[in-house]
Amino acid sequence: MSTAQVPPVTSIGVPRITAGYDEYGRLDLQAHQEVHGGFAALSSGELIGLTDRIELRGRGGAGFPFARKVRAVIDSCKRQDLPPVIVVNATEGEPPSWKDKAILTRGPHLILDGAALAAAALDAEEIVIGIADDGIGQNSLTAALAERKMPCPTRIVTVPHRFISGEGGALVRGINGEAHIPPGRKVRSSDNGVMGLPTLLSNAETYSQLAIAARLGPWEYNSVGIPEEPGTVMLTVGGSATAPAVVEAPSGTPLMDVLTMCGADIGPGLLVGGYHGKWISAEQAETVTISRKGFAKVGGTLGAGMLIPIGSKTCALGEVAQVVQYLAGESAGQCGPCRLGLPDLARAVTLVSLGGSALEQVRQAAGLVKGRGACSHPDGTSRFALSALEVFHADVEAHANGEGCGKQVRGILPLPYTAEKGARKLALDWSRCDGHGLCSAVAPEIIRLDHNGFPAFPQTPLPPWLEDGARKAVNVCPALALRLIDPAAAAH
């Protein structure tokens, strides 16, 4: 079972989740039992007591206390006289994140152990494991299920590999055969989840941490990390890192220790918490420890453990504009702030990256979507954009005065569409262009006119949702100077 697409996995200190990876590569059931040993079943009260004592919180981004989820499901089951369903969210739809896929491909039995513990404790009707349809980890997980007996029927459900498909409500809808998008209103899965049953839903790493804690007990589990956030944390380090990796580290580890180990050139800023996270400066990064509390001190968030240094050789604003365009295209389209507000935000950020004086437009567009969406997508996107403009203020000034930052967009912030995957880009034949300006009027979200009246646009592949606008701009060009090309084909 190939793990070639997953970054290398390493650890600081003694590994727990990732124990045995170096020796076995992937742990089948026999290797898993040799490395981790057995564990005793837990009652519902013991499950709550254990997860309370180790301060276990969801590792998918929201950080909700696991014990509170269990209590809510138990209360709902009693109130409705219904059995629960256990859902493992291993979709990991955010492009920079790899930690859950690392566990899926190399230590799947740990995820299954945690799900089995919860299912047995709550006398669950079913276990459902949600994974992305990119195929990564599916063979490994299927093989692991074939090697063992689970306490109740267990099935794998694949969902589209999209940013919003991993949101809890979207996953439940997908499992129920509905559209893989957030429900658009607050729905507690503990009350009404899979098949209308009370549902305990948490992230793949969370269930793995539960399996570790059940073996070690609260005392030994809490012997690593900081008292208020004990245990280890799974991190994905990418961006400008010369040795990108999935890293398991004790909570409280200095952030710089992790970044240095991965050869990260921070440059002017570091994205923490993923594309719904926040940019922090290089100076702030030097003061942070790996914990929710540590990141909160600099206004950031641990989220799902993504650390993405931008590096000193990258056009930060160009990278940020591409991501905001991607996030606008990932909208579920079921509320105004997403459907209308995020494209406005993407246009404004793109204008800033192209040298336009659109800072106030960015702030205005972000302000109009914050706190008004049917899910957290508008808030997360605006936080990403606004924090970027704050941290990269020097680049904003350089772009605005016409000089630019002198750096290239290098794909440091990963996206699911690339030239290699068929995404196209705009190109201009300067010998033909007469500066009519019609293209910018038709596609202002992509093209603006520079100081001399000629079109300026990103030199990077376009997100699919902008292709129609780009095609219209090409069609209205009277001089036939503007083209939409396949950069991968042009390179050969």
UniProtKB/TrEMBL annotation:
Q: What are the names of the required cofactors? A: FMN; [4Fe-4S] cluster
What InterPro entries does this protein map onto? Answer: ComplexI_51kDa_subunit, Nuo51_FMN-bd, Nuo51_FMN-bd_sf, Nuop51_4Fe4S-bd, Nuop51_4Fe4S-bd_sf
- Pfam families per the UniProt record, alphabetical: Complex1_51K, Fer4_15, NADH_4Fe-4S
Q: Which SUPFAM superfamilies match?
A: 4Fe-4S ferredoxins (SSF54862), Nqo1 FMN-binding domain-like (SSF142019), Nqo1 middle domain-like (SSF142984), Nqo1C-terminal domain-like (SSF140490)
The keyword Metal-binding appears for this protein: yes
Q: Where is the NADH-ubiquinone oxidoreductase 51kDa subunit iron-sulphur binding domain?
A: 317-362
Q: Name one GO biological process term.
A: cellular respiration
Task: Specify whether Kinase is a keyword of the entry.
Answer: no
Keyword annotations of the record:
4Fe-4S, Flavoprotein, FMN, Iron, Iron-sulfur, Metal-binding, Ubiquinone
Molecular function terms from GO = 4 iron, 4 sulfur cluster binding; metal ion binding; NADH dehydrogenase activity
PANTHER family, per the entry: NADH DEHYDROGENASE [UBIQUINONE] FLAVOPROTEIN 1, MITOCHONDRIAL, NADH-UBIQUINONE OXIDOREDUCTASE FLAVOPROTEIN 1 NDUFV1
Similarity remark: Belongs to the complex I 51 kDa subunit family.
> What's this protein's name?
NADH:ubiquinone oxidoreductase subunit F (NADH-binding)
Where does this protein come from, organism-wise?
A: Actinoplanes teichomyceticus
